[in-house]
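re: ur question from yesterday

yeah so i grabbed the chain u mentioned. its 360 aa long if i counted rite. heres the sequnce exactly as i have it in my notes:
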Amino acid sequence: MVKKILKVIILVFILVIIFSFYMANRMDVFKTLTAQTPDVCSVLPMNGSAEDIKIDYERGLAYLSLEDRAALIKGEDVQGTVVQINLNKSPYELKPALSQQPDHLRPHGISLYIDNNGQRHLGVINHPKNRDLGTETVELFSEGISGLFNYQKTVKDNTFKSPNALVLVAQDKFYLGNDKGAETMFGKIQEQLGRPMSSIAYFNGNSVVIAAKNLSQVSGINVSNNQEYLFASETTAKRIAVFSIDAENGELNKLETIKISGSPDNINITDKGDIIVAAIPKVIALIQHFISFQKEEVIPAPSQILRLKWEFGSHGSKTRIDELFLSTGDDFSTASVGTIWKNRLFMGSIDDKKLLICDL
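ran it thru and got these structure tokens back, copy pasting raw so excuse formatting
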């Protein structure tokens, strides 16, 4: 009897060790970072952080999802907005992008769409004050004669579980990535352990359907310039999922996944078709960063930006991945988005109140 109990104890101990190593590996505990940053970088201070950035390449305007997320992490009641920067004028200056906005606006992912007539449209994910009880929405805006965006309508649906990123494919059609999908405590535990329960919703202008499911925390989403392909960040799986798009009904067909060196966040597509991905290079450092906020001792978190050149043809696909930026976070912490304008890399953050702009 004693031998049996001893065997059970040893087995449990071995399983605990295996599980501990598994979780430590998932959180990059054993990962060593070697900084690689451009020689020339400058900082644009702001009164909030730009979690997402979209560039109008025809006009040279950048749109930023701006909010004091550092204060939000501390539990303060803050509101955000969308601002713009004219990239053709130096020094860069933040200006309002919206002529009007909802009374409550906590923006997350944003998307810019230019229709065939050249009119600009903007989509903004809007989180409620209480994300456990409130309704998640997408606010749609269209550009007015003043050049600012006028509010058009609010879209909400019970498939918007935990929206993180969206991409407009028409004035009132969009794909939305949910970074969580579990609804029960047991499901949330499974999701944290790696079970893919995230999804992509598609709004066709009238109703919402689930276009893709069983994904691992969709935190970024975008489409190719010809709208034939959709790219989605699977953050906890450290990969990018690639889908083909059915132009008639919006259905997604998964083609492949691309493994990357970090945990991907927002995705941008340049005017040249390059895929720019912000990534979390070391998850445990990001967790420590958020914990430090509660102690008023902010510990920077590493930042990483990757450029993917992806092609798909009759013989399959090929991908080239270049690391454009990697730092331990002392210069720029918690990068959540990167984008390129005229060989300049613009980086926004989850909670760092500045833009980092580097010459490539």
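noticed a couple things. The first strand starts at residue 41 and ends at 45. also Residues 242 and 256 are 5 Å apart (CA to CA).
anyway ttyl
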